[in-house]
Please model this.
Amino acid sequence: MTSYTLSAITALLGGRFIGKDIEISGVRPLDSASASHMSFLANPKYRAEVTSSQAGAVIVNEKTAEEFPGRNLIVADDPYLYFAKVARLFSPVTASSGKRHPTAVIEHDAVVPESCEIGAHAYIGTGTVLGRGCRILAGAVVEHDCTLGDEVVIHPNAVIYHGCTLGHRVEIHSGAVIGADGFGLAFAGDSWFKIPQTGGVTLGDDVEIGSNSNIDRGAMSDTVVGNGTKIDNQVQIGHNCKIGSHTVIAAKTGISGSVTVGSYCVIGGGVGTVGHIEIADKTTIGGGSSITHSIKESGQHIAGPYPMQTHKEWARNAVHVRHLSEMSKQIKQLEQAVAQLKNQ
Model:
């Protein structure tokens, strides 16, 4: 079992430790940690749990470090981020084994370095080029004329359609489909005529796509997702969208075609957008919101299903929603009283 002393952890990740230089063999929440585990305090309302926790060490910030005398602590600027980095020490990224299963199919002109791992029944199409250390796992498909960067991971039964480009360290989870046809149709009077989708999909470095999510290929130019963007499960990105860098999109969100989303945006679960709009950098959109027009000012916090409004406006209006019936009755009573006064 892998273990690290507190001094070794701080040497690797920064911060400073207080107390005994004990060994840690894993990470756990405060309420289930034992003496060999490390936990963290990011939200001050859980201070009491630190006192009662059996954790061998706790990550805290500078402000709260003095509140727990006698405890083994690591002091960091951002305890939650530091905890994530410690967790990565105990759960490192799986490296490619370099093995190729005999049932895998690799077309004769595909470029697959020896460092790549190709799982059972995986398929690599003609003209496709893989970077070093890729892992194409069981049942995954990478169609023809794709380009993958180094250390890309395609999980079981994910599909990369033809002509797509994936940057370095991209991870595509099971059931995801990258590059399926966009929903482009022209009405021919009595039926719909499908518009050929001749673009592709380009994913930047360090992009992660959750299970059963879909990113449609562009009609003529590529659908693009920027570096470091993380997309949750069951998300739909329509054709010709441009998603910026380091944006996060939670589950069951649907982004319609030709939408431009800026960088460092946070989009909650179940959000829906109309097509052909722009969402500025650093926009935060609350879960379940319906985005009906462009958000052009950076840093806005948007919330509410309909009509779209800032979070502050939504919170102020939401207070009154539960009293709508009572307010309606009062308005009718006032209208009746005014009518009686006019008749006198």
